[in-house]
Amino acid sequence: MKKELITQSINLFVEKGFSATSIQDIVDAIGVTKGSFYYHFKSKEALLMHIHLSYIDDLLRRQKRILETEKTCRTKLMKVVEFLIEDIEAQGALGRIYYREIRHLSAENGAVIREKKNQFRDNIESIVADGIKNGEFRKNLQPKMTTYAILGMTNWSYQWFNPEGELSVSELAAIYTDFILNGILAEK
Amino acid sequence: MKKELITQSINLFVEKGFSATSIQDIVDAIGVTKGSFYYHFKSKEALLMHIHLSYIDDLLRRQKRILETEKTCRTKLMKVVEFLIEDIEAQGALGRIYYREIRHLSAENGAVIREKKNQFRDNIESIVADGIKNGEFRKNLQPKMTTYAILGMTNWSYQWFNPEGELSVSELAAIYTDFILNGILAEK
Amino acid sequence: MKKELITQSINLFVEKGFSATSIQDIVDAIGVTKGSFYYHFKSKEALLMHIHLSYIDDLLRRQKRILETEKTCRTKLMKVVEFLIEDIEAQGALGRIYYREIRHLSAENGAVIREKKNQFRDNIESIVADGIKNGEFRKNLQPKMTTYAILGMTNWSYQWFNPEGELSVSELAAIYTDFILNGILAEK
Amino acid sequence: MKKELITQSINLFVEKGFSATSIQDIVDAIGVTKGSFYYHFKSKEALLMHIHLSYIDDLLRRQKRILETEKTCRTKLMKVVEFLIEDIEAQGALGRIYYREIRHLSAENGAVIREKKNQFRDNIESIVADGIKNGEFRKNLQPKMTTYAILGMTNWSYQWFNPEGELSVSELAAIYTDFILNGILAEK
DNA sequence: AATGAATGAGATTTCATTCAT
DNA sequence: TATGAATGAAATCTCATTCAT
């Protein structure tokens, strides 16, 4: 039941946004009473924090596995991009909340999540920096900005990509990794 | 005074989100009363629509000028990316609202804005498609997905880029256009 | 209307206690809506504070006037006791709230009220101490405890005395002042 | 465990008041669950009634013993005042609840307690009346009002007296009985 | 004897909106 | 143009109580 509350609230948060989703909306969606909600969560914000925490912890766990498994910076980076994009299928809704509703966490909770989020980004920045050093990537790249560019592309895809449309998540991942590696210019 | 209402509400919407910002918050910020607000705007949503409309109309106007002025697809695309990123300095707050609060427009208003937004994106897609056709860009690019990638990068920068930090908006624009054109791989 | 809210809430607080009186109870009593209540008072506690503050400030003002007007310690003390008891008629309800609901004020507000309350008591203690020094009162009295005894008697009367019963407030005041001055023992 | 529930609830009722203390507060204080509470008490009010009943029955029992043991009205009265004040040490918290939370009993339960409370007071009134008749006390006293004055003083002391402060309960009792017997005026 | 989950009623508070002045 | 008072709906949250286990 706690799980159902989480599932339904994720859907509603995606659809209407956190602020505009009421506890009533959530409990109506699964046919229980407000009292039940507050038995399982201390507050609406506590639910939001729960969602954020389990999502970012999951991302960090999977990122870590890739960093340990892959050998080259190129494959490390590509695998991370692939798993982020392919994740749209399984947890696209979660991702959209994650990037939009952080502001509604309390100061302390927000800090906790932001810290982990930065860690995730820093890990990617390290891949880029290492790749530049060892010659896999172009010398004149700025690791930090390049990381933001890559994350911008992937994160943004959560906002528009429909996994049931013409392209599959894997196909999108392939297109995006090609774009990242080679840019758009025709070769001379 | 209508202008002040708009300015302050933009700041508040950025900071707390549309739903979580009350009319009281807005009028408190400029020291008037709620009655005044309703003299100038029919409703809270009308204000949000006003903000959206003037922003997207401005973007379309400037995009159109670039399309008419520039000659090659490459320069057309670069100029659009540059103006979007450099705009962070002048209207970053506006941009952040634009991409986040559309959901709080009514069905009709939302449709109007989405229509214009699609137009903006379609114009970019056309540049990419034309560039592929005429050989400026790689043959195997997918225009639509490439456009999403480019817009994802630029839009996302509104979320994290601080124009008063180490890099200027122009420097960021340069880094991003280089990334888009050439990717990250070292040349063989 | 703000006045009516205060008047009715005092009655209800006396009857049911602060915690057990709902905002709904209060606004129902005068036929307005909850929204109105919150237009006039920031919170339920703000109303309680308002009540406390205006009551204790009134008491201090009247006490001060007596201290300035009367000459002997005996008349000073008697006048204070008289006005407290005779006040039952005009503000008995207020008095009962005052002594019972302080706990429901916030820490800061509670401190403000307690401070003023102590001042009121200290002023009486000074009368007793002065009276002992100048020979009006018995040498072996303890000013502080004697003050508590006197205030205990008078305050307690707010809990049981019915001004519409057999005795008038003035008669009760006479009986109490006699008791305070002479005790109960038959003279030897 | 029932005893622990009672002990802890008394503390909480003193601190926060009956209405503002939740069952959750009580069971949290001793580390059990709400279900347990309802095994031992039919309702929150049942607990309050239990507390009131055992307290007033105890007072009546001890008062009765004094009435049977002491010979003169003066010693009877003094012994009752002494035991009430000295009781602050052992059951001060209980006393404070008793005088404050009666209102939260149901009509019937409230009547039972009020009945016993009146009996306690009537017994004191009888001592005063007898003392007047037999010449121990002044002729011009009003037994009922005098009783209220005495009970007011003693009851009020539960609100402010700290048995761990400068004075012991016995010392306070001595001061109060002296005050009751002799008043404050210096002898002529 | 005790627990954990759930309920339903009701509490305080917020807020967009209206309207007479 | 602007204000101040009021409204009504809905939001978050609390809480005494029940009940199957």
TrEMBL record, chains A, B, C, D:
Chain ranges of the HTH tetR-type domain: 1-59
Return the Pfam families for the record: TetR_C_24, TetR_N
Work out whether the entry's keyword set contains DNA-binding: yes
Q: Does the keyword DNA-binding apply?
A: yes
* GO MF terms held by the record: DNA binding
Keywords (A to Z) from UniProt:
DNA-binding
Q: Where is the signal peptide?
A: none
User: Mind listing where the DNA-binding region sits, in residue ranges?
Assistant: 22-41
InterPro entries, A to Z: DNA-bd_HTH_TetR-type_CS (IPR023772), Homeodomain-like_sf (IPR009057), HTH-type_Tx_Regulator (IPR050624), HTH_TetR (IPR001647), KstR2_TetR_C (IPR041490), Tet_transcr_reg_TetR-rel_C_sf (IPR036271)
Q: What is this protein called?
A: TetR/AcrR family transcriptional regulator
User: Native species of this protein?
Assistant: Planococcus salinus
